[in-house]
Design a protein that fits this description.
binds zinc ion, globular, single chain
């Protein structure tokens, strides 16, 4: 997971969000939701509108907001409600954050493995089922007394335990190991709970991160060798390649790649 600036513009300087007509429809949907409260059935025709999907794909560089897996060409993805719209797993009787069903800031592009409950299916070299996981309707808080129960309750008061890619700096909470596993910074509850709820330890995600980590390790070694051999131009070219194709926001698993550059010694460089 990396931080994404929701207000960023595209290359032509246009804000990356649906147009005014969608926000007008969303406002009508919100009025309906407020009137029906807990009985409201959220309308995917609004929250998963093509315009919303196109904007989310662009804003998040066609990557899952949580695990950074490529989405679109390779995998199906969901328009995810960060605060769940229909129920809250941790709070019996909570109607869900129905008033945020059409709130642009509550919508994220998320792969099915992070969003839905999925098994961690066996791998050829590891023929066992590991623990199933996925976010679904979870939205854990440190303190239930802070939970927003109705429109108007302050969301900022909630002692949220899930990392929000648009609000938090995930690199302050998450670390990676040489074999691609993701771990929380020692004692970091938000990191621990996010890894658990988003199912970020599933083996295929671990292996994808491990591949990126191996590439960055190899590139850093090449850069050092070029520098030691006095080939400064080659070293500079490699640095640019590393920057553009492994570390940029648009690169899959950029968080893991950046962890190597930040602390190469941990990864044997
Ligand atoms: Zn994902």
């Amino acid at each position: 997971m990396i931080h994404i600036d929701r207000d960023r513009a595209d290359e032509q300087g246009r804000p990356i969000r649906p147009g005014a007509s969608w926000f007008a429809r969303a406002a009508r949907g919100r009025e309906r939701a407020a009137a029906e409260a807990g009985a409201h059935e959220a309308d995917p025709g609004i929250y998963a509108d093509d315009w919303v999907k196109a904007a989310l794909e662009e804003l998040f560089h066609r990557k899952c907001a949580y695990c950074e897996a490529p989405i679109g060409a390779e995998a199906d993805w969901n328009v995810e409600h960060f605060r769940p719209k229909g129920r809250v797993a941790e709070r019996h009787g909570h109607p869900g954050y129905y008033w945020l069903a059409y709130e642009w800031l509550n919508l994220y592009p998320v792969c099915e493995h992070c969003n839905q409950r999925r098994k961690d299916r066996p791998l050829w070299g590891d023929l066992q089922f590991a623990e199933a996981g996925g976010k679904q309707d979870q939205f854990p808080l440190e303190d239930e007394a802070t939970r927003a129960m109705a429109p108007g309750d302050a969301l900022a008061r909630e002692a949220r335990l899930l990392l929000d890619p648009c609000e938090d700096r995930p690199e302050e909470h998450l670390r990676f190991t040489v074999d691609g596993q993701i771990v929380a910074v020692t004692g970091d509850r938000k990191g621990e709970v996010s890894i658990e709820v988003f199912h970020l330890r599933r083996r295929r995600a671990r292996d994808a991160r491990r591949n990126v980590i191996s590439e960055v390790v190899a590139l850093l070694k090449l850069i050092r060798k070029s520098e030691a051999d006095g080939r400064q131009e080659a070293a500079a070219d490699l640095r640019r390649f590393l920057e553009d194709f492994r570390l940029a926001d648009s690169c899959p698993y950029a968080a893991a790649a950046r962890a190597v550059v930040r602390d190469p010694a941990v990864f044997g460089v």
